[in-house]
Amino acid sequence: MDSPSRSRSRFTLDPLASRDDMDRSPILRWGAIAFLVLIGLLLETTIFSSWRLFNAAPTFGYVAVAGVAYYAGANTAMVFGFFAGLGSDIFYRTPLGVTALSMMLCGVLVGVIQTGMMRPTPLAVPLLGLMVSLIGNTVYILISIIVGFESLVSIHSFYAVLLTSLMNMVASPFIFLFIKQFIGAPAWKNR
Amino acid sequence: MTVRKRVLFLLLITAITLITIDVRGGTSGPIGAVRSSVREVISPLQRGISAVVSPVGSFVDGVTNASDLKRENQKLRKEITQVRTENKTLEAAANENQRLRKLLNLVDEIDVDSVTARIITGSPSNFETSIQVNRGSNSDVKVGDPVVDGDGLVGRVIEVSPNRATVLLIVDSTSGVGVRTSRSEVVGIAQGSSGSRFLSMQFVDPDADVKKGDTVVTSGLQDGLFPPNIPVATIRSVKKDSSGLSKNVQLDPIVDLDRLSVVSILKARR
Q1: Shortest Cα distance from A36 to chain B (angstroms)?
Q2: So where are chain B's domains?
Q3: Can you say whether the dihedral through the CA atoms of B214, B189, B218, A50 is positive or negative?
Q4: Separation between Cα atoms, residue B38 and residue A90, nearest integer Å
């Protein structure tokens, strides 16, 4: 039977893990994260941004961060969220770092929540997708307003957050499945 | 302090520093330059992906907007009949206009150089309305250049890199275009509003002669940014403002901003 530390190391993708915990080389693990960020970014700025429902497009980046947090823990999600957000910020007019900050905080939040989960329920994934989208987009709007984008204070912003969160909720099982295939077994299983 | 807390703290400080530098530096700052370069590198990949998946996007768009398309089709059929009739009248008016222009020795002010550009991607986020086009400073595109399509005004260039530019659409909440009604010459500012596909005409006198269906064109008064007489919108509704100090005029953009594929970038007069 595997020792707890051995079973944790089998699936870990945590870039902050100690050297003893690593099965894959740091280059491979960072490479996997960079690849996931790049693919996500390209899809988000090309395909997903055109899938609009009542003028609101999904923001699957937040769900991806939640997926990484769910399967790989808060540390990985924090770093993944920061760089994925930074990548998104390149294409937005809001200052560089706003999405990075909101996605990073979402990663930490979901990572902390998943460590408290005794066992997953069928509704856990859609609910996490909904929650992370609502919180992430709201944090993004709040930071943007603080740094001078007052135009985001509008009824449209409210509808957009709501609609995009519902779309994200529907898509989250598929995104979580992709993340799971990409990075391995759930973090709760590895504890 | 645990590793997680240390890294979280480091990332927080990095994000706040980046935000501060970007806000202070604007598009001409160091982060603006980095952002521009990264967009430039990624744009060929985006173009490739867009070309491959655009049929899927069109399908999704068609499914989600099928009822709108049906309604629009019926509306367009009616309009074609109406326009054919009007066209004959306008031809005569255009001939007369041409003669008058010659007579007054006026220069056709819209006759400016232009560059044709293809759309790379649409709005990247829910909270802004801009598009990326495949022409940049290598094609002599500059910040502030007006962008039009066959129907009318699309927006203006707000950021340029060698082979790519960002165009702020007229419906963005930070966009304002000096306009006038073509029938009654009432001037105002066509202002976008957050997230919606409509405009509102600001600073319209409460007694001004504006009616639903009037066409609104660029006034050319905005320090030469937009050439005059480019169609911008049609008046959707006119209501009295609650304060009674102005009229609340809502506009429908003439250009279908959701179905842009090719645009012309005009050289701004400086």
Answers
A1: 15
A2: 3-63, 65-104, 116-169+260-266, 176-257
A3: negative
A4: 7
Closest chain B residue by Cα to residue A38: B42
Q: How far is B250 from chain A (nearest CA, A)?
A: 17
What is residue A139's three-state secondary structure?
helix
Say if the Cβ atoms of A147 and B23 lie within 8 Å: yes
Asked if A55 and B64 come within 8 Å (Cβ–Cβ), the reply is no
A112 part of contact set with chain B, CB < 8 Å: no
Give the residue among A103, A85, A95, A108 at the shortest CA–CA distance from A146.
A95
Q: Which residues contact A120 (CB under 8 A, 6 or more apart)?
A: A186, A188
Number of independent structural domains in chain A: 1
Domain B116-169+260-266 coded CATH 2.40.10.340? yes
Q: How far is CA B82 from CA B46, B86, B90, B152, B203, in A?
A: 41, 6, 12, 19, 32
Taking CB atoms and an 8 Å limit, are B193 and A156 in contact across chains? yes
- Alpha-carbon distance of A140 to A128, in angstroms, equals 18
Q: Give the domain range for residue A32.
A: 4-190
* Cβ–Cβ gap A96/B173 under 8 Å: no
**For testing contact with chain A, the best of B18, B24, B37, B125 (most A CBs within 10 A):** B125
Q: B49 and A98: CB-CB below 8 Å?
A: no
Tens of pLDDT along chain A (191 residues) come to 344 444 444 444 444 444 444 455 666 767 777 788 888 888 887 778 777 777 788 888 899 999 888 888 888 888 889 988 988 888 888 888 899 999 999 999 988 888 777 666 778 889 989 999 999 999 999 998 888 888 778 888 888 899 999 999 999 999 888 888 777 655 444 44
Closest CA to A147 of A69, A76, A93, A83: A93
Size of the A and B interface in Cβ pairs below 8 Å: 146
CATH class held by domain B176-257 = mainly beta
